[in-house]
Amino acid sequence: MWANPDWRGGLYPPHGGSEGWLADYARVFATVEGNTTFYSGAPREATVATWARQAPPGFRFCFKLPASLTHERRLAGIEADLDAFLEALSPLHDRLGPMMVQLPRDFGPDELPRLEHLLARWPAGIPCAVEVRHREFFHKGRAEKALNGMLITYGANRVMLDVRPLFATAPGAHPGLQHAQAEKPRVPLHVLSTGDCPLVRFIGHLDSDLNERCFTPWIERLILWINQGKTPYLMVHTPDNHGAPELARRLHSRLCERCSLPPLEAFAGERQTTLF
After folding, report:
1. Which Pfam families match (predicted)?
2. From CA 196, how far away is CA 215, in angstroms rounded?
């Protein structure tokens, strides 16, 4: 997401409208997790044209398939609607990162043939990332082996959801932490790259030291994937996402200590603050 008014005065200027938020976001970060399509489906043509105009060539949108396809219809008979959805995003074709197929918590092993049908007809020019939440896919048994083998066969990436920091403590009285723990699935972390674009969703805590400790093992893994010629994607969340840009910047700086990455631009809100 990038349309977050809580980021005024930090990532975004403290005043003014939201028209320039995507451009300000893309000046700092190279990718974004597009949640709006999950809830609202395909965006309007004018909206996509605006995104295409504001996002630089190296930027990557990682949209989610609409919930109407993944959760309501559970991937059954969605071919025409999927094609229409992808066509709506076609003006962004050179700026599409892994498209995320986030499956319901009760989408289990018996429904894997539906997922395979989707992957078999997935367009070659768009990376695919699948996020499963059913417990059977985390037991290292037959179901998980079948899933991982399928993803490897079709070159699809398995989304690695890291909720360790989020669930490291009881929620206490903080409403954001309470909401995030109730919303996010408490699943084990299985680190496995099944495609060329490993995608990690790091769900942080309010405690910055805790986030740092949980992120440390990722540094070696991300460097390994980069050295293997892969393009890892790291999506950073916090319980209420108020501090997500700052956490992402801090984790990026940790990576820069170990490998050669371009520095991040200053946040637009911070630039304005230093001018006055």
Report:
1. DUF72
2. 21
In order of 13, 14, 27, 250, 267, the CA distances from 273 in angstroms are 9, 9, 17, 20, 10
- Residue closest to 238 by CA, chosen among 215, 259, 268: 215
Closest CA to 210 of 166, 255, 161: 166
Residue-by-residue DSSP string for 206-229: S-HHHHHHHHHHHHHHHHHHHHTT
pLDDT digits (tens, 9 = 90+) for 105-153: 999 999 999 999 999 999 999 999 999 999 999 999 999 999 999 999 9
What residues does 233 pair with on adjacent strands? 199
Q: How far apart are CA 85 and CA 91, in angstroms?
A: 12
What is the chain's mean pLDDT, rounded? 95
Q: Which among 200, 168, 166, 199 is positioned nearest to 184, based on CA atoms?
A: 166
CA 189 to centroid of chain Cα atoms: 16
CA dist 120 and 102 (Å) reads 17
C-alpha count within 13 angstroms, C-beta hemisphere, residue 186: 9
Chain segment 211-231, per-residue pLDDT in tens: 999 999 999 999 999 999 999
Q: Are 63 and 48 in contact (CB under 8 A)?
A: no
Amino acid found at 271: R
Give the Cα separation of 150 and 142 in Å (integer): 12
